[in-house]
Amino acid sequence: MVDHGPRTGDKVALTFDADMTDAMRHQLRSGAVRSYANLAIIDLLEREGVPATFFLTGKWVEEYPDVTRRLAANPRFELANHTYGHLAFTADCYQLPTIPRQRMAADVARTFDVIAPYGGRQTRYFRFPGLCHDRTALTELAPLGVTVVDGDVVSGDPFARSWRPIVDAVLSRVRPGSVVVLHVTEANAPMTDEALPRILAGLADRGLTPAPLSEVLAATPPRPAG
Length: 226
Fold this sequence. Notes:
Shape: globular
Largest sheet: 8 strands, parallel
Number of helices: 9
Mean pLDDT: 96
Order of helices and strands: EHHEHHEHEHEEHEHEH
Strand content: 15-25%
Low-confidence stretches: none
């Protein structure tokens, strides 16, 4: 497991979770929400040439195959695993339904299989929904050879009503080697696209440069599980 990279140099990782639960899928298909893919974020990252890493759920990939192809086609973007349907791997995790222990490894393996055909810069990085994990979950995933990435800067962008607290949360905590947790799920994180340019400006003011997660974590020893 890792939270951040070395505290030297000037690199930080911007990571974007792409959640998709059954409830979210129902809202999308019923027309209750317009989109769980914030294209304004991707437009900005592409326009400015900013590297980023996207933690994708398998169900999000299935809902947005064209957007996934777009992410995979960008050599500055990395793709990582965020489970198949964003179920919780521990009890009491943000009211998410819990996945049984015996299904944990298969769920994560299935997600790698869903992402694989898209190519691009795929990784063995994995992030638990809600960052919720325990020794049982880590033990179940150990055979998959994943690197669990939590992050040391949690933006709090889901359901934020203003860009200001998102920007403040990031810029008040970010340091060299930081892994910033953001979301690309527009309906659930509607202010992230407004916060992002201000975050990028704040990073530049601090002499920090976004880089792919693999570069930020390079030579970082994982911390022991548990």
